[in-house]
Amino acid sequence: MGMNELIKTIIHHYSIGMLIYFLMVNLFYITIIILSLDRLKKFLKISGTDITAVSDYTKPISILVPAYNERETIIDSIQSLLDLDYPKFEIIVVNDGSKDDTLQRVISFYNLRRVNVELNNQVPSEHVRGVYSSFDRPNLVVVDKENGGKADALNAGINVSRFPLFCAIDADSFIEKKALIKVAKPFQKYSETIASGGIVRIANGCKIENGQLVKASLPKKMVEKFQVIEYFRAFLTSRVGWESLNSLLIISGAFGLFKKSAVIKVGGYKKTIGEDMELILRLHKEYIKEKIPYKISFASDAVCWTQAPDSLKGLKSQRLRWHRGLIDSMLKHKELLFNPRYGKVGMLSMPYFCLVEMLGPVIELVGYIILGLAIYYSVLSNVVLYIFLVAFLFGVLFSYSGILLEQLSYKRYNSLVEICLLFLYSLFEQVGYRQITVWWRFLAFLNFKKGSKQWGSIQRKSFTKGG
């Protein structure tokens, strides 16, 4: 067999395998989209008539805000939290050894003073150097601690917190006024709820005043618009669908509400790259092993607005960190994979996240190499073309579904021009942007062991200055 024939045979067999893989994956995508649509319809019908949002069963919440070098956004973030519509809550800002003047800005702005607090060290954290509060803002507490990373800062917040539920919120984000009520609804409705996540939206391009959204608008840069579409896909299709199966594997670190005793039960946050996903996997594992009924929910109407990277450099850093976190979580909990003991988590969501989310970039990159070889050796077959056509069409379909679910449900972008732009950019996203992010996610495998487990960072901008 000649070299051309051998290469042609390899390309043909690999292409058939890839075609089957893409068809199976996209069939699963369609199923998730259908589940998401059905779930959203039911959710909106209930939320539109629900009058039990605040009641005697509304539990007080400790809001934990881990902060590291957040001087540009920390005051806006705290202001928005102080203005939340919720019966009883406390805000605990944890300064994780910031190298800028984050701590000093907060102390000065709110006229805080050092107080003596007896720490309840139920989960491990680095040394706490001081705790600050004031008579004017009795529900605002600032914890200053030695640097240990985001997970460690959250653990310190848990140890200081007083209430049975805690909400983890990023310091470069802010939540809408009624978001806390909405994300807490599952805890009121289902006693077995141990975690509930909110939806994260991109604040870039939006008009924000005094820590509150005035008008939602699309950002100007192409790289930011692509991320708006990605967030629609991730939250309104993927997470809504998985939540309907009680197999949700991630609650965004930017906005999540937890039963404190459940998190303490599994040892708190661990110092990993993707502490948010790793915690959810541990909760699933523990409650299934102990045969304790539980529910991990997603409140798609509880909105958190966050700053997204506005440059390729910042986006690359974020995506490398995210994918290393995914790999790390999958490896730490690999015993769940295809394990019927863990039900839908072991047989559905873990295989999906391993084979599609984690290994997908590698499989897709090999596909591009196969395409290049096929063109170079003039053995391009219809099968290879079908693969890339299927990948392109289903990628667009998935993006369109996210946009449509947004418009059918919450309609945050009311301008017809902006909606049309989102559909148009969904086409552009599949050519160029997708390949760049695939390459970055592939690089995460190569530098996985070298990857830092400390804070990731993007260039922060003040929200009121157009962040």
Give structural notes.
It contains 13 helices and 12 strands. With 467 residues, the chain is an alpha/beta fold. The protein folds into 2 domains: 130 residues; 268 residues, Spore Coat Polysaccharide Biosynthesis Protein SpsA, Chain A. The strands form 2 sheets. The protein has a 10-stranded mixed sheet, with helices on both faces. A hairpin with a 2-residue loop joins strand 9 and strand 10. The radius of gyration is 23 Å and the shape is globular. It comes from Proteinivorax hydrogeniformans.
Gist of the model:
It is built from 13 helices and 12 strands. The protein has helices at 3-49, 74-82, 102-109, 150-160, 179-189, 222-244, 260-265, 275-289, 312-332, 343-358, 360-376, 382-409, 416-446; strands at residues 61-67, 89-96, 113-115, 128-133, 140-145, 165-169, 173-175, 193-202, 207-209, 212-215, 255-259, 295-306.
Distance, first to last CA: 61 Å
Proportion of residues in β-strands: 15-25%
What general form does the structure show?
Answer: globular
Number of strands: 12
Order of helices and strands: HEHEHEEEHEEHEEEHEHHEHHHHH
What is the radius of gyration?
A: 23 Å
| Order of neighbouring strands in the sheet with most strands | 3-4-5-2-1-6-11-8-12-7
- Which CATH architecture of the largest domain would you pick? Alpha-Beta Complex
Mean pLDDT: 88
Low-confidence stretches: none
* Count of alpha and pi helical runs: 13
Measured as a percent range, the helix fraction is 40-55%
Q: Briefly, what CATH class of the largest domain?
A: Alpha Beta
CATH topology description of the largest domain: Spore Coat Polysaccharide Biosynthesis Protein SpsA, Chain A
Largest sheet: 10 strands, mixed
GO molecular function, one term: glycosyltransferase activity
Pfam families: Glyco_trans_2_3, Glycos_transf_2
Keywords: Glycosyltransferase, Membrane, Transferase, Transmembrane, Transmembrane helix
Protein name: Glycosyltransferase family 2 protein
